[in-house]
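Below is a filled-in request sheet from our internal design queue. Each sheet records the structural input a requester submitted and the sequence that came back. We keep these sheets so that new team members can see what a complete request looks like end to end.

REQUESTER: design group, bay 2
PRIORITY: normal
MODE: inverse folding
CHAIN LENGTH: 297
BACKBONE (tokenized):
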């Protein structure tokens, strides 16, 4: 659902004619519907109301400060992939304890910044990154809360360029190697093993790949518990798709029902990282035609 509609030959954003906005601010400009954003976020977030959870909007989908500020007021958090996104999230009023730092290329400066801000947790992509964050936390004299991003070797059935959960993909730690990585994390003085993370891809149009990944994560959580490593939160990532052409992705309610049924009574807080499903059809780019040029066809 979105709030861009034609009335006659004129397009409106909610109750405002886009022509009025053009006269006020000129072109080009982006126009976003607050009602659409609020509705999409609320529908997604409320679908998981049966379980402790935190909806961390994926800032890379759209980092507009007004959008981030709206989600902050709605109780949302942020999934970030850079120091710049951390800055924007904090500027927009998102509390540090609602920020999860994902991404494969965290620099020393960015790690130090996130440690100073005392974010909820780092999603760790590799054994090398785990050691780097441990060293920076030691310098800072505190502990870094972390989750390991586990690659569950699940086919997300999406475009190969946005698939991230197969063994051949570069992202995360192979699920077969995860126990060893968690045991190492447990032994590091300046690391607090807080959660487990998974993100299998973008623009997924069915629930089955999410559930297959979740089944594998649950098995790993059980093994970790037996080894004395308690997992407090499970980050299922994002990736729920939207219609572009003929796609028919599941409604957030359908997605949530499947996830909650599979989770059962697992004693973990759920973290979700929706992006395009929240903002994908919430805005338009207004431009002005300057010329029309005819060519031979």
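RETURNED SEQUENCE:
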């Amino acid at each position: 659902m979105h709030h861009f509609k034609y009335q006659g030959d004129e397009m409106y954003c909610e109750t405002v004619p886009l022509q009025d906005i053009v006269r006020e601010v000129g072109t080009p400009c982006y126009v976003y519907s607050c009602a659409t954003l609020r509705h999409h976020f609320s529908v997604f977030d409320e679908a998981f109301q049966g379980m402790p959870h935190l909806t961390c909007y994926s800032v890379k989908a759209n980092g507009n400060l007004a959008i981030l500020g709206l989600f902050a007021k709605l109780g949302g958090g942020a999934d970030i992939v850079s120091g710049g996104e951390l800055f924007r999230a904090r500027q927009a009023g998102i509390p540090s304890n609602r920020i999860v730092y994902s991404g494969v290329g965290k620099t020393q400066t960015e790690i130090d910044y996130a440690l100073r801000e005392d974010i909820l947790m780092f999603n760790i992509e590799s054994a090398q990154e785990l050691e780097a964050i441990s060293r920076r936390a030691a310098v800072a004299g505190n502990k870094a809360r972390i989750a390991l991003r586990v690659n569950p070797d699940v086919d997300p059935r999406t475009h190969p360029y946005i698939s991230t959960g197969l063994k051949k993909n570069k992202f995360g730690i192979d699920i077969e190697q995860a126990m060893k990585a968690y045991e190492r994390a447990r032994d590091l003085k300046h690391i607090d093993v807080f959660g487990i993370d998974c993100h299998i891809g973008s623009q997924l149009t069915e629930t089955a790949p999410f559930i297959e990944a979740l089944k594998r994560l649950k098995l790993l959580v059980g093994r970790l518990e037996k080894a004395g490593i308690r997992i407090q939160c499970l980050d299922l990532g994002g990736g729920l798709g939207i219609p572009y052409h003929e796609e028919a992705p599941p409604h957030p309610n359908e997605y949530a029902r499947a996830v909650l049924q599979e989770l059962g009574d697992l004693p973990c807080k759920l973290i979700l990282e929706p992006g395009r499903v929240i903002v994908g059809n919430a805005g338009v780019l207004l431009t002005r035609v300057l010329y029309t040029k005819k060519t031979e066809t």
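SHEET NOTES:
- The two ends are 39 Å apart (CA to CA).
- The first helix runs from residue 18 to 25.
FILED BY: M.R.
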